[in-house]
Design brief:
By secondary structure, the chain is an alpha/beta fold. Helix 4 links the parallel strand 3 and strand 4. The protein is built from 12 helices and 8 strands.
Length: about 325
Amino acid sequence: MNLRLFDLHCDTLYECNKQNKSLVSNDLNLSLKRLSEYKRFCQVLAMWSDPKDSEDENYRNFFMARELLARQLSEAEKLGISVRLCTDSHTLAEAEDQGSMAVMLAVEGGRLLSDDISRLDSLYEAGVRFLTLVWNKTCKIGGAHDSDEGLTDFGREVVLRCFELGIIPDVSHASAKMTSEVLEMCEKSGKVCVATHSNSYAVCNHRRNLDDASFRRISRLGGIVGVSLAPMHLTNGDKCTIDDIVAHIERYLSLGGEDSVCLGCDLDGVGHLPEGIDNVSDLAKIAEKLAQNNYNEILIDKIFYANARNFISLWLN
């Protein structure tokens, strides 16, 4: 497949850890074998903080998943699949030069921190470079999308420590107020945040989605926004297709997002996917639809790979 892929969010590592499945080859939406079909790829693997588990359990589960990842990368090497865990632009460039596939680490939901800021340092040492601050439940960091709450004092401490360490704050799942407050902190500090898997509220008016003003602010900072494949965030209708995915991409492009719109597909994190997409191999169909809509190869590559790659070069160097 003559297509490069840099995807900002999937839950496959969490599912492999939970179900005791192989990251190399499995029946999930994503596996390393399927990713190897792409000309080049980098996948951000998120470890979800399950609100059904305690904060301490989620923290322990992260490190169990981290150990699983190390074993799976070793297993892949034995099978002739070269995969590297990357933490910055230098390690990513080395993986590219060596023809290796790349993965990066994220945490989805900051509740695993409890109220212990030192845990953030431990996550950084373990390779985490993206932190989705909240998930669907408000936590000690701040308000989720279904609330009107903003950042707590501890949440502000977390964001500032992310800036210091080199962890990118992710406002996907955050309330509108919290998103605005994180953006204000970025603007004052000369830092950046992202929305790894957030669709356009203007296209589908779900509170989980990102309004135009927030998208523009993220873009102006040099941040990136990943379009997800969660049907409930793509359309208000009963049927969800690749056309709906493209509609969100086009909305972001219309807002000046040529250098900031990416993919954050949320594979293995949603119950079902749009029609025509069963797994990561099918993402090429999105590129085909964009080409049919007269988008050129350069822009398609920016959406699929180059925008995210350039972001890493600028902010994780």
